[in-house]
Amino acid sequence: MIKKIIQTDESKTTIIIRLMVGAVFLSEGIQKFLFPAIRGAGRFEKIGLPNPEFLGSFVGAFEIISGILILLGLVTRLAPIPTLVIMLVAIATTK
């Protein structure tokens, strides 16, 4: 069971999708640290989320870690879970 969780598919389409998704989350996570007023804490404060400084760093770190794991093809069955939660919260708070 652990081998199935750790192992990833090596087909070309899977690799392309992994590269695109991983690159998006990696770049978004880095932007939360480079531009905190626009992408990180400032954005979370504007939306009205509590403790925006912590959330900006927390979300940015998870996006970077998950993005790297997805790009490298490591733990690809578990790494998207935090990114899915981040996307659902972003949709719920902005729409």
Describe this structure in words.
The protein has 95 residues and is mainly α. The chain has one domain (11-94). Helix content is 75%, strand content 0%. The chain has helices at residues 2-6, 12-34, 41-47, 52-72, 80-94. Helix 3 crosses helix 4 (52-72) and helix 4 crosses helix 5. The model has no long low-confidence stretch (mean pLDDT 90).
List the helices and strands and how they pair.
Elements (H helix, E strand, L loop, with lengths): L1 H5 L5 H23 L6 H7 L4 H21 L7 H15 L1
Helix pairs in contact: 2-4, 3-4, 4-5
Helical content, roughly?
over 70%
How would you spell out the order of helices and strands? HHHHH
Give me the oligomer status: single chain
What is the CA–CA distance across the termini? 38 Å
Counting helices, strands and paired strands, the structural category is mainly alpha
Instruction: Give the amount of beta strand, in percent.
Output: under 5%
Computed CA radius of gyration, to the nearest angstrom: 14 Å
How confident overall, as mean pLDDT?
A: 90
Summed up, the domain count is 1
